[in-house]
MerR family transcriptional regulator (Saxibacter everestensis), 103 residues
Amino acid sequence: MTKKMVGQSAAVYGISVAAELVGLGQQTLRQYENKGLIEPERTAGGTRRYSDLDLVRLRRIAELLACGLNLAGIRMVLGLEAANLKLRRELKDARQLSAKGDE
DNA sequence: CTTCTAACA
DNA sequence: TGTTAGCA
């Protein structure tokens, strides 16, 4: 591992740079957190630190928002999406286990 | 930087 | 309802 850290959320941005990168306002990002759409890390002082994954999440929020969903609906969609991924992982593991036992 | 409040489309 | 502006 040299240049591409396979790890996901290493980098951390302040709210102002995160807002600019995603093209949203700072107050809007705080609102998203208030509505439970996203939960960025916090420094000891209480400042938000947005990871690269958070930026992707923010763009997904903007996309769903453009589709006509409200913040409450987006929260549910993100939750269902996370649950879906979890189920996929469990299914994948279960498949590998049964394959081994079958051989 | 944080939170809160108020106003607008 | 979501976004923005101003204050503490």
About this structure: Residues 24-25, 27-28, 31, 65, 70-71 of chain A lie near DNA strand C (CB under 10 Å from a C1'). The mean pLDDT of chain A is 90. The first strand of chain A starts at residue 41 and ends at 42. Residues 15-102 of chain A form a domain with the Multidrug-efflux Transporter Regulator; Chain: A; Domain 2 fold (CATH 1.10.1660.10).
